Amino acid sequence: MSRLKFYIAASVVAGVIAGLAMVGRRVTADIPSFEALERYQPPLTTRVYDANEALIAELSIEKRALLSLSEIPVDLQNAVLAIEDSRFFSHWGISPRGIARAALANLMAGRKVQGGSTLTQQLAKIIFLSPERSYLRKLRELVLAIQIERNLSKEEILQLYLNQIYFGEGAYGAQAAAAIFFGKDIKDLKIEESALLAGLPKSPTNYSPFRNPKLAEKRRSLVLERMREEGFISEADEKKALAIPVPATRPLLAGIQAPYFVEYVRRQLEPRYGYNTLWRGGLTIHTTLDLKMQKIAEEEMEKALAAFDVTALKEWERQLKEDQDAGIDPPSVSTNPPANIQGVFVAMDVKSGAVKAMIGGRGDQFNRAVQAQRQPGSTFKPFVWAAALNSGMTAGTLVEDMPLAYYYDGRDWRLLDGTTDQYAINLATSVFANSSDFKVWVPNNFDNSFKGVITLRTALALSRNVASVRLIEHVGPPKVVELAHRAGISSRLAPVLSLGLGSSVVSPLEMANAFMTFANGGIHVKSHAVTRVEDSHGKLLDRHIPKEEEALSPQIAYIVTHLLKAVVDVGTGVRAKQIRRPLAGKTGTTNENKDLWFVGYTPDMVAVAWMGYDDATSLGRRLSSGSTLVPWWAEIMKRLLADVPSRDFPVPDDIVFPKIDADTGFLALPTCARKAVVAYKKGTEPVAFCPFDHTKPLVLRADFAVSGQVPGQSVEASTDPVLNPTDGTSLPTDAELEDLEPDP
């Protein structure tokens, strides 16, 4: 009998052992090794800084920053220990007493009212285990906690916990929590703030002060009470902390500022480093942005565009009512009110190409500064003029601003015979109007008038479209395309005559980059937004090294700049003079006023501005960039350059400045009605004085014909009819603004 009992007992023990072994295998199955803990790297936050080390944005899957324990305030450490695990430094990963106490409390309540997990168990759960609730998972948690305690010091465990635990509102780790809940660095936390944070991990949503301020205050009071009971703070400290209300509103955070710039940086770096490294790798990205300049640009542009929206809405209401009163059906305007106008502003350092400010639009993620492809209108003309100067022309070369027409014979566009005869042009247009084989293209000026024979300087200052077409035909469209690409335009440019009127689409950033070449003495430096990138340990991954390429000779670049100064001094950009410093630039207004542009630069900064609707709707009749856009561009630049000393553009060698007759290009005499100091490359300047009697109408002949003759330096008298070369005024009217006549 005793032997039978022995066998039964032995069988029971064996069964228990076998059962425990099976349970043990299930518990330990799939438990990660400690080596996995050592390799564990939580997702980190990538931080983007401006040129002055101000935080612009944080890129992360989870908002998180890793700190050493010494960087975490002792009050926060104590608050967490007091409320979560007061016996942390005495247990070995699990607390049998705590488990028993929690089990009894839960049994008596009939539901779970208390947890028995140690801080180490919580760490094991959030790092390695799923959020499922089961006894098997709980057993695995216990085993993992013991493994962690065997391999890490208490300080290392506490550090991991405080960097890993979720505090709510997207904040993982104590540093992110300090920023999100209090808008400050963790080192600046006060006792009551540490207590509030320590109370959040138990139930981040319920105890969030932004969602339930009363519950958050009650939870904070409990944490402070426990801190006092554990001897971490005095009763006086507790009372003082209790008297301070919890924050019920979110603080102003250093979240994503300059969103279009940050998106531009992201689009550059993500293909290089990959999604995971950029969003989870804790990179430090140093950029060229000046946050102060960015905010100035945003403020001024928004003010101007908001005012435009109000005016546009009133004009739409007026026009719609006018059409309805007149019985016009359908009305000449849409029955839907106009959308908000979009705008772009980009400013860059002339020497380095560093982007200092970038606004890509309003109210969405589409970055028009980089991604939009729009016709630039007359802002493209400087590249035509630069090509003309390269071919041997000068600022005083005479060009015809007279009626001009081309016809298409099925293969090529050819100059129409009698092209300066407006009657012949009108006749050809009417004859070919319904022809499928022949087409006629008639370039025109914004004001539908002609100035006659004028200098290249005057033609650019007043943005004469017809003169631009004559120049590009003489130089050849391919040469203009080549020069524009060398200067910094990267978009495809069609080598057609209308290219000089801005018929090919480009981005605003490209235009700023290309104009920067003129400002930089003919040296092209590609624009850039990132200066260096470091990994989460501070190791340098990449540094920007500028590359310089000569796109134009210093002399040609300077002469273009001098011509563009005239655009601001007496031309279509005259409203930019309010910045009161040497400035060059070019306006642009496309066909039907769909796009307004201005690209301007000083010796230190180049900036582009654009206005338009995304659907290419007209901005309104008789609007121009000179009257609508240039004023707010100038307001921005005036503030951006307030602390920058004013200086003129440096003059390269072999540049001379004769005073010429602005109408004829000859050296000026006292009797000349309009004079101008103009830049020439030495050896190309005029040598003869003006032979004309300015008391009589001038009769001039262009220095070259559109057939491609070599330009000369003389002006001949002509028996042709008077061509009315100038209206004699020194400043343009609002009508003397440019337009785009697109290629047919």
What does this structure look like?
The C terminus is likely disordered. The protein is built from 23 helices and 24 strands. The chain is elongated, with a radius of gyration of 37 Å. The longest helix is centred in the middle third of the chain and has 35 residues. The protein has 744 residues and is of the alpha+beta class. α5 crosses α7 and α15 packs across α19.
Radius of gyration of CA atoms, rounded to a whole number: 37 Å
CATH class of the domain at 36-242: Mainly Alpha
What share of the residues lie within helices? Answer: 25-40%
Identify the CATH homologous superfamily of the domain at 36-242. Biosynthetic peptidoglycan transglycosylase-like
Poorly predicted residue ranges: 12-29, 705-744
**Overall outline:** elongated
How would a crystallographer describe the biggest sheet? 5 strands, mixed
Termini separation comes to: 114 Å
Number of helices: 23
Mean pLDDT: 82
β-strand amount: 5-15%
Count every beta strand, where a strand is a DSSP E run of 2 or more residues: 24
CATH architecture label of the domain at 36-242: Orthogonal Bundle
**What strand order characterises the main sheet?**
2-1-6-15-16
Structural class call reads alpha+beta
CATH topology tier name of the domain at 36-242: Penicillin binding protein transpeptidase fold
